[in-house]
Amino acid sequence: MRRAVAALPLAGSAAAARSQQQPRHQDDEFRVLVVGAGLGGCVCASELRKRFEDGGPTLRLSVWERATYCAGRFGARAVHGGRAVDLGSQVLSVVDPSDARAAPGHGVSAEASIAAFAEASRLARAGLLVPADDGALAGTEERLNWPGLWRHYRAATSLSDVLEDVLARARPADVRFGRRVDAVAVSDRGIVVSATQRPAGERVAETFDAVVVAVAAPDALAIGGAAGGLPAGAVVAGVAYDARTAAAFFFDDAGGALCANQPLVWGVPTKLQNSLAPSNRRRFV
Ligand SMILES: Cc1cc2nc3c(=O)[nH]c(=O)nc-3n(C[C@H](O)[C@H](O)[C@H](O)COP(=O)(O)OP(=O)(O)OC[C@H]3O[C@@H](n4cnc5c(N)ncnc54)[C@H](O)[C@@H]3O)c2cc1C
């Protein structure tokens, strides 16, 4: 069982805290908490589910997210009159594994790129993703250096709906939105996770056998006990981000006027910090 958890590839900014204890509770159940329902958390939950499907202990999966929906830098959105605008990621991009240029490299293993391609294709078949033309997208390094290698998909409705679908397939036993994790501590019964639940602000605590912290580096460091005490803490502390501000403008269908009954600008700079490839980062500093 421990092997299954230890082998799980974590999202770039994620840190994991794992109990050294065997589960002490009754039943053959392994309690895992994923902190954060952004892209990393939702994909992690779905991968965990797959890895517990080959027999052995039953996975009891919980997901706690401080936002009120599957958000993060991938799923953050503004909604007005039933329409959603993605504020973070605009496209989901995957390498086509059948292209000879796909291996080696591009920052992902062959196994991960095949899995990512399969998942994006599934989401497209389900009508949640729509292929996006290279020509409609900005000339990023990947697109300029590797023309045609990447397949890009935009959301049919919003990328948050894509995350919801990925999370649902993980069949979590318990999903809590509006719950911010404040601290983790290892006890002889497992990993005790304390959190604050919105809107009332009540304090909650629960014990797990493993905790995956799938949040941005500064958020991980803000969780008491999560990253600071682990060897990964030094790595997490060294992660650099640039800051971005996203704005959504909604226009009236009839006259093309800006809608007046909503704030015109949604700025979520704290959620929209983005890690950059070093070559890109140089352009911003
Ligand atoms: C403006 C912008 C545009 C981008 N465009 C693209 C693009 O087009 N294509 C692409 O592939 N990538 C793009 N990216 C990058 C991509 O969005 C991110 O790499 C990805 O979303 C990171 O996901 P994550 O799950 O690691 O972190 P996050 O998205 O930050 O998710 C972490 C989640 O954890 C929650 N959380 C944090 N702390 C706590 C806590 N203490 N308790 C509970 N929950 C917590 C947060 O609310 C959040 O929902 C873009 C990023 C930005 C900012």
CATH architecture of the largest domain: 3-Layer(bba) Sandwich
According to CATH, what is the topology of the largest domain? FAD/NAD(P)-binding domain
Strand order in the sheet with the most strands? 1-13-2-3-9
Number of helices: 9
GO cellular component, one term: extracellular region
Organism: Aureococcus anophagefferens
Protein name: Amine oxidase domain-containing protein
GO molecular function: oxidoreductase activity, acting on NAD(P)H
Give the secondary structure arrangement, pairings included:
Blueprint: H1 2-6, E1 15-18, E2 29-35, H2 39-51, E3 58-65, H3 72-75, E4 77-80, E5 83-86, E6 92-95, H4 110-125, E7 129-131, H5 141-145, E8 150-155, H6 159-169, E9 174-177, E10 179-187, E11 190-197, E12 202-208, E13 210-213, H7 217-222, H8 232-237, H9 278-281
Parallel strand pairs: 2-3, 2-13, 3-9
Antiparallel strand pairs: 1-13, 4-5, 6-8, 7-8, 10-11, 11-12
The structure holds flavin-adenine dinucleotide (FAD).
Flavin-adenine dinucleotide binds at residues 11, 13, 35-41, 64-67, 71-74, 88-93, 180-181, 214-216, 219, 223, 244, 246, 272, 274.
Organism: Aureococcus anophagefferens (Harmful bloom alga)
GO molecular function, one term: oxidoreductase activity, acting on NAD(P)H
Protein name: Amine oxidase domain-containing protein
